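Archive maintenance. Older records in this collection stored only the sequence; we are now back-filling the structure field for every entry so that each record is complete. The fields below show one back-filled record exactly as it appears after the update. Entries are processed alphabetically, and Enamine deaminase RidA is next in the queue.

ARCHIVE ENTRY
Title: Enamine deaminase RidA
Organism field: Paenibacillus selenitireducens
Length field: 134
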Amino acid sequence: MKNSNNPIIQRYNPENIAKPVGNYSHVTKISRNAEWYVFSGQIGIDQNNHIPTDFNQQVTHTMNNIVEILASQHLTPDHVVKINIWATEEIDWDHFYEIWNDVFGSTPPSMTIAYVKGLGLPEIKIELDVWAAG
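Back-filled structure field:
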């Protein structure tokens, strides 16, 4: 699979290795003329600075925050190169992928997932570390 929608970022899943176990790309290639963007980890806080206790609400807010922070730099989700996911409890993959697929479509970025004991504040249950190029 190769993404040809964005001349700056190309995504691949080589056929000589196992298919991804989730909705991500094994390889993301960035053009040499791209500018790099590194964003602080995005959390599930809403516009009123409230962090809900519900994990899935935090996932929804986190993805909305990613779309907004990208837009602040005139970028779209298609510019995302890699996302590292840090979660303190098991992810509800049905909910997560419903939102992930809405945001990233059929050629999602590369991804790493880790379950951790805690994040920056005790109420934070998920944080996504986003790298983009444009």
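Update note: The first strand starts at residue 9 and ends at 12. The chain has one domain: 9-133.
Entry marked complete.
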